[in-house]
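Hi all, posting the design record for the shared folder.

TITLE: backbone redesign
STEP: 1 of 1
STRUCTURE INPUT:
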């Protein structure tokens, strides 16, 4: 069937662009939809990427299997698959709940695959199929030029989501936007299928040395493919451990070889080191910055010389954290890992500590029963939550009902009175085990406290109305607060769980973001009065850390009582807080510290 040359080529290019754009747009989009429901841990993003890679491979395998059919029959089969997959529209995550006792590392990939599997496979197959159909319709023309269009669409999708789609479009709007794009893709594929020739493609005879690859070579290809995927997932995990699990890190995708990765990596690393250590670390007696600079220069100079570059890379990995990581890992139960993070225990004669990722999550002083029951770190008596729990008996009586979201080491338990009712909400069973076996706060201060395992927001939403007098929100994944715990709808759940004069404490200490506007917006929407306290304890105070807490209540008298207990509380500017976060919309870009 004859076709106008330029118009026909444009149709193939547009179809390739649309398919690749949708494919790479859906990856951060579905992860963004899933993260709040699945706990907001960095591992959820890794699970999503694992599913994407598996589905992408399945799509390529499906496209390869269709090669045995004539091109028009290929098009008919593929249009049928696109039509069947449309039953999963609008795209999103199924509303299934995590069954009790099911490991999240198995459940999350299964949930994501069931939610988007058919759509992802169908869209991922279109690039190789369209190239094959182009070769059939235009014998003698190189179809691999369309690969450039595929790359362009892929990068456009990755860039468009964090910079345009997520900041400007709600989650519901994103789902329908992608649905419209998918229907357009079906129309484009149908238009190409209508123009395909009836005759089978004339295949080129294989040359003499066109032997199938050996299993050893295939294994090598698989091993090499693991390297960039592993680097990408490791980088995403590192970023989302301390900020917030969100699709911004999707911008780092398939690099163009080691040189670009090395240059960019050396510049990110140099800036971070300058920020963390300051100029003195570069030129003093102990100058890690200068050492790093020398290694980075040698590494860049050795690009292209494989043995030299590998040697420099190995040395840098060992010097900058590798040796310490190996030492900690070899020590046995000092470091433990769960689906929700990596936890590191350390102990000396004076204190026992727990770190989650790169952030200190609890310190217990040692040496005497009094020291072991002393609240430390972000929970000292001068902190916002320390002051609130101290006056809780005066506000709510000796039998107050206290809820704590985020167990950590259980430090807050030592504010408890024997007659109070305490409930801890913790998503990670490993943390609950560490708190009860390696730290003694819970055992000595609240032995009868209830610990609810699971996502705190789901558990609080299911609780009876007015179940608590005071609720402390202290859920962190390393240095990041999960997004779904700070949305307007989440604060509505907290409001239902608190009695009318209840007090809500929100911990927002963070090295990279100021979350005050988010809490202020939720307070304004929910009719809360809000004050904040930035506590800066003396440097010589054992185990104390700087902390930033916000206190909210719908009763002005409660806020006045808290403000009267010590100085430092200031009112939050709710009028200039902006729209804040909702379950349908959230972006961290405006919150990042310069």
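Okay, here is what came back for every position:
SEQUENCE:
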């Amino acid at each position: 069937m004859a076709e106008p040359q330029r118009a026909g080529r444009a149709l193939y290019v547009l179809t390739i662009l649309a398919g690749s754009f949708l494919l790479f747009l859906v990856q951060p989009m579905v992860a963004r939809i899933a993260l709040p429901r699945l706990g907001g841990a960095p591992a959820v993003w890794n699970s999503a990427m694992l599913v994407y890679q598996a589905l992408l491979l399945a799509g390529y395998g499906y496209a390869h299997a269709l090669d045995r059919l004539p091109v028009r029959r290929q098009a008919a089969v593929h249009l049928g698959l696109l039509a069947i997959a449309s039953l999963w529209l609008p795209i999103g995550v199924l509303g299934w709940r995590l069954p009790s006792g099911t490991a999240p590392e198995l459940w999350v990939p299964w949930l994501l695959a069931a939610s988007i599997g058919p759509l992802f496979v169908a869209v991922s197959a279109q690039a190789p199929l369209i190239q094959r159909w182009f070769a059939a319709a235009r014998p003698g023309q190189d179809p691999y030029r369309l690969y450039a269009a595929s790359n362009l669409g892929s990068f456009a999708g990755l860039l468009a989501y964090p910079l345009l789609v997520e900041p400007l479009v709600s989650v519901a709007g994103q789902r329908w936007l992608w649905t419209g794009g998918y229907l357009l893709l079906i129309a484009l594929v149908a238009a190409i299928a209508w123009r395909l020739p009836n005759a089978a493609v004339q295949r080129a005879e294989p040359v003499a040395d066109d032997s199938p690859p050996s299993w050893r070579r295939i294994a090598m290809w698989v091993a090499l493919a693991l390297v960039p995927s592993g680097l990408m997932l490791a980088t995403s995990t590192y970023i989302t451990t301390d900020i917030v699990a969100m699709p911004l890190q999707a911008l780092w995708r398939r690099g163009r070889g080691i040189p670009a990765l090395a240059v960019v990596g050396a510049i990110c690393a140099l800036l971070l080191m300058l920020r963390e250590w300051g100029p003195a670390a570069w030129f003093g007696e102990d100058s890690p910055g200068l050492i790093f600079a020398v290694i980075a220069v040698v590494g860049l100079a050795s690009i292209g010389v494989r043995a030299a570059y590998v040697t420099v890379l190995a040395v840098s990995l060992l010097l900058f954290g590798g040796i310490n990581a190996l030492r900690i890992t070899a020590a046995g139960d000092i470091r433990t890992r769960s689906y929700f993070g990596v936890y590191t225990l350390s102990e000396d004669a004076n204190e026992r500590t727990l770190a989650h990722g790169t952030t200190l999550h609890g310190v217990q002083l040692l040496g005497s029963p009094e020291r072991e029951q002393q609240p430390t770190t972000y929970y000292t008596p001068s902190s916002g939550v320390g002051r609130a729990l101290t006056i809780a008996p005066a506000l709510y009586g000796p039998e107050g009902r206290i809820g704590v979201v985020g167990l950590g080491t259980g430090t807050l338990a030592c504010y408890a009175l024997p007659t109070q009712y305490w409930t801890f909400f913790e998503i990670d069973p490993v943390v609950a085990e560490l708190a009860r076996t390696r730290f003694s706060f819970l055992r000595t201060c609240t032995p009868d406290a209830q610990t609810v395992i699971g996502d705190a927001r789901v558990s609080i939403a299911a609780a009876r109305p007015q179940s608590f007098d005071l609720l402390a929100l202290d859920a962190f994944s390393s240095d990041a607060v999960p997004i779904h715990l700070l949305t307007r709808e989440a604060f509505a759940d907290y409001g239902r769980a608190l009695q009318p004069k209840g007090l809500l404490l929100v911990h927002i200490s963070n090295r990279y973001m100021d979350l005050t506007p988010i809490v202020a917006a939720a307070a304004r929407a929910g009719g809360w009065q809000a004050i904040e306290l930035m506590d800066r304890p003396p440097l010589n105070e054992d185990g104390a850390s700087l902390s930033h807490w916000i206190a909210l209540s719908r009763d002005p008298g409660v806020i006045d009582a808290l403000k009267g207990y010590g100085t430092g509380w200031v009112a939050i500017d709710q009028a200039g807080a902006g729209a804040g976060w909702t379950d349908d919309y959230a972006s961290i870009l405006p919150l990042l510290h310069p």
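COMMENT: Residues 47 and 108 are 7 Å apart (CA to CA).
Let me know if anyone wants the other runs.
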